[in-house]
Amino acid sequence: MAENKTEKPTEKRLRDARKRGEVFKSADLTHAFLFLATAAVLALGGAAFIHQWKAFAIDMFGSRTIAIPIENGLLLSRTGIYLMKFFALLLPLLGVLVLIALAANFFQVRALFATEVLAFKFERMNPVTGFRRMFFESRAYIEFAKTLLKLLVILWLAYLVVRGMSPEIMLSGRLGLAQIGVLGSHAVFILLFSIGGTFLLLGGADYFLQRKLYMKKLMMTKDEVKREHKQEEGDPQIRARRRLIHREILTQNIVESIPQATVLVVNPTHLAVALRYDEKTMQAPEVTAKGQDQLAEKMVKLARDHGIPVVRNIPLAHSLYRLDLDTQIPEGLYDAVAEILTWVYDLTQRDVL
């Protein structure tokens, strides 16, 4: 029997999914920004936009006559010219919309380039897989319900806009071409702004829904989590990286702790433990740094460079090394450490004299 997926996805599983191009985002949020951006373009440059389209319409459908029958060459030439003018008028708006779409997607998924998405996969071409995905997955029904809801919302908002502007629409037959353009752009602005605002709310809810579905899809079994942890622990690069970080941290602590130490107890070369004791502020000596092998040699060199006494005591070095950093020595080691500290103080006094 298959094990239930009850565990949240690990960081590695999330990273791997992102590398494959599997991310969550809301298309409704992107659509909302596109509708609002189009409304903003109409609001800010509506007059100029209408003037340009009016000039285009007059130029195309104006009083200019064309000889009949129309020559094929002339027809193709005129068609090409008007198509170029048409796309030239649309180009600024399309440019803004492309930038908005890119920004909206970047806001949701950040920078992402997944080559696996571009790779050919047979299951994408398999009609059985597509049929199963379309009719037997809960996600397909959710997407269908969302599409139906959005269509109903757009139709309802369009109805409200038309009903609200019905007096102006009824009188539009008496208006000139420019006035009809202004009226039409005003109606389109209201509709786009209404749709954009509504989609912004729907998109926010959809974003959290997509995140929930995404995390559910990547859920793991307990066995998968254990296997992944073992793989990470067994990765030579990860182990080497951890050792390097640990060694850097220890070295930094040692460089800071050795100059403040009272004495360094050594093994003599395999182990080194730094002790610090201030009889005015401390109840017992503390272990401030410890190391073995190369780290122990580094500690000995630092101690000698800073004039810290180095004492060879193999049993005591082993006992002290088992203690945690920044902890006081236990009572069982008081006598042995006191003997060393007495020698250190005597040595210090002789140096002073």
Characterization of this structure:
It is built from 14 helices and four strands. The chain is mostly helical and about 350 residues long. The chain folds into two domains: about 210 residues, no CATH class; about 100 residues, secretion proteins EscU (name from scop), CATH 3.40.1690.10. A four-stranded mixed sheet has the order 3-2-1-4, sandwiched between helices. It starts with 10 loop residues before the first helix and ends with a helix. The model has no long low-confidence stretch (mean pLDDT about 80).
Structural class: mainly alpha
Mean pLDDT: 78
* Poorly predicted sequence stretches spanning 5 or more consecutive residues: none
Number of strands: 4
Q: What count of structural domains?
A: 2
Rg is 38 Å
- Biggest β-sheet strands, sense, barrel: 4 strands, mixed
Q: How many alpha or pi helices? A: 14
Strand order of the largest sheet: 3-2-1-4
Give the overall shape: elongated
Spatial separation of the terminal alpha carbons: 82 Å
Instruction: Write down the secondary-structure element order.
Output: HHHHHHHHHHHEEEHEHH
Which band does the percent of strand residues land in?
5-15%
Helix content: 55-70%
Oligomer: single chain
